[in-house]
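Q: Convert this sequence to structure tokens.
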Amino acid sequence: MTQTRTLMLALACLFLCAGVAHAGGKRRANMPPGWTWPPSAGMQQLGKRCKQRLSELGVRWKKAPRTQKVASAVFLPAMTLPVAGGGEIALVSTYRKPPFVMDCHLALALTERASELHELGVRELHFSSIHRYTHVQKPGNKKGALSRHAIGLAIDVWHVVDDAGIKHSVEEHYLAGDELLLEIESLMNESGAFRMVLTPANDPLAHDDHFHFEADVDYETEAEREQRLRAEREQRKRIRAKKQAKRKRIRAQKQAKRKRARARRARQARARREAQAEQRAAQSKRRKRQERRERRSD
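A:
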């Protein structure tokens, strides 16, 4: 379990730090692939299909007024998620008053998991917020990228009520190993409909008391995806070329350094030989003078 949570923490950090390119070629940090504002024609079309799917699943929804950064804004008047075969899961606000604006894709992601959550025993999800125009808080209370709450794709769940009426608190029971909360986390992570669930285990600084669910949406068209992948490949090529040039420059510098060192050693050896030759010549002169003095004395 510890290893799993460590891996989840690493992945969550990666997700939060990642930036995604949009159609204009600029980077919108923490935004879904292909996300633009105002919404592109492709995003609007996906929004229409999402609303159709909500209706097919029996979700009671209404179109919400145009909301800043929310591509397909909807209300759920009853704030319930229908369950296949009968039943529902209630979305209960902990303190805010309705209506609650959300992106259609968040409503759809929750609805498509409702039957599985219901089988686990979930009857109510108590949340503090869905849409709010906020930024991700960085260390030192600095403002980071726009959060997924700002685009209506995230919900913060603090408590879960089961079919026996028992309230499971994320803050009080999750780290103690509450089975239902752990099963919910596993279900959401494995569903593919959500990004990595943020919990007290993998993000204790910002999510020590609640679950943070983010619907995982991909707005990119095939053409946009190919363009992005092509740009990423070109970027990787440029990075490799820079690294190769740097390695080549370092090798050349090392070779030049070795060459200078060899030349320096050669000069030093030549200087030693010359000094030794001068020393031998001086010794030879002294011997000859000594020999001449000895002959004269004889």
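Helices lie at 2-17, 41-56, 104-120, 170-174, 179-191, 222-297.
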